[in-house]
Write a structure and sequence with these properties.
Elements: E1 2-9, E2 14-18, E3 41-48, H1 54-57, E4 69-72, E5 76-79, H2 85-90, E6 95-98, H3 110-122, E7 127-130, H4 136-139
Antiparallel strand pairs: 1-2, 1-3, 2-4, 3-7, 4-5, 5-6
């Protein structure tokens, strides 16, 4: 089981993250920002659960989608840390940030490949929307 989050800012910027936080986000209005500029973000959350047989359930973590990456309009971030503040402060995880925005290659970029993986999982039959009213006991 893993959490996936898709963030869509109203200005058109997008970010997708696997194993991301479930926190709702609405940035404060910056001083001098025109009043007609909407800076709120919409955050959609889904739970990815891979079904298993009773025998597979006996094996801990046998059916886990445990990705740790983020894709934005410009970069791909691939890391080893869980998406929790203490992991970024207290552990020796590592990460790779890939920016191929100026790539002239005919091959797919790391960013586009990770975006395709995220979209595949996001739209999967194993992915269920999470809301404040979701009963996780029924989902897991």
């Amino acid at each position: 089981m893993s959490k996936q989050t898709k963030i869509q800012a109203r200005n058109g910027a997008n970010a997708s993250a696997a194993s991301a936080s479930q926190a709702e986000y609405s940035p404060p209005q910056a001083s001098g920002t025109p009043p007609d500029m909407d800076t709120t973000a919409l955050i959609h959350k889904r739970l990815f659960v891979v079904p298993s047989s009773s025998k597979q359930k006996e094996i801990p973590f046998a059916r886990v989608n445990h990705n740790k990456y983020m894709v934005t309009d410009k970069i791909a971030y691939i890391g080893t840390s869980n998406w929790s503040g203490d992991y970024f402060v207290s552990t020796a995880g590592s990460a790779l940030v890939v920016n191929q925005t100026a790539s002239q290659s005919v091959e797919p970029t790391v960013q586009s490949q990770l975006q395709a993986v995220f979209e595949r999982d996001w739209n999967s039959d194993y992915s269920t929307p999470l809301t404040q009213h979701s009963n996780l006991k029924n989902l897991c």
